[in-house]
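pasting for ref
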Amino acid sequence: MAACLGTQYTAAPVDHELHRLLPFYAEARAAGEALALAVVLRTAGSTYRKSGAWMLIAADGRYAGLLSGGCLEGDLREHAARIIAQGGAALVRYDTRGPDDELWGLGSGCEGAMDVLLTRVGGAEGWQPLEAIEQALAAGEACAFGVVTADLPGGPRRGTVVMQAPDGAGTTTTMAAADPPAGPDGLFVVRVRAPLHLLLLGAGPDAQPVAELARFLGYRLTVVDHRSEYADRARFPAGARVIECRPAALAAHCDLARVDAAVVMSHHLPSDRDYLAALARSPVGYVGLLGPPHRRERLLAELGADAAALRARLRAPVGLDIGARTPSSIALSILAQIHAEVAAGSASHAPG
């Protein structure tokens, strides 16, 4: 099939609210109701979402995810209903760059353009790519899928979804990791990031708002504490993994190689020291520590040689300096820093 697909072009990895999209898919599949998958192929100017973003739309107009701030979804629902009923695919172009926004009359002032490809996803299509994305999410893995963007002679039709097998077995085409956008016809590759995995070391009352916000954002979450009254699953959001173990045994109970960010917040010096020692010997790229600078320096001094391996990754005091004083606002500052540094790029941490 690869010879028939023409040019491949790949969107940069985009954050997707998979924790909202996949339950929507699961509900539709259980009811036997097909959905429309809407994928942003290209954008120009100012747009709410960028190339590679996608959403799901049901025949009755319900949807999960957003491609605009609500300006385009009403029209997309009409196209989606037709695609679900008739099959096939549709390429829809929106352009709000005109001074009067004559096409939509929205007066949004966004001054942007967007090409969106809609295709049907249901039993006849093997529920792809949603089934494969669900499996990857359960394993904490990234994945990719391709959408054919134009009918090609002798090849698949526009809207056909092409999956990439993790080990190459059964792969119908090669989806290169960094092919640049090149031409309107061919295979558009969407790369879906694995959900960020956050490890909370300490399950006291102030860990609860951090956990709740992390799960709201769709992070995978593991909470560890050696105190049974704190290591209680009922105290944390659904889907969180809660482990009761001694800090020195952390590496035996949690695969630190699969953790993106860790926050040490047990409020107990010996426990925090043992947590930091385990993290110093791990590949975890972001390590946050709750508490003032003098506490940080005391713990680093107690770590000895391990401190050198940890210092560059350590954010202490953890969180962005937003003037946070309450548990909820401190949780916001912590998650904002993790998002900025781990999920999106880099940001300066709180002074100290």
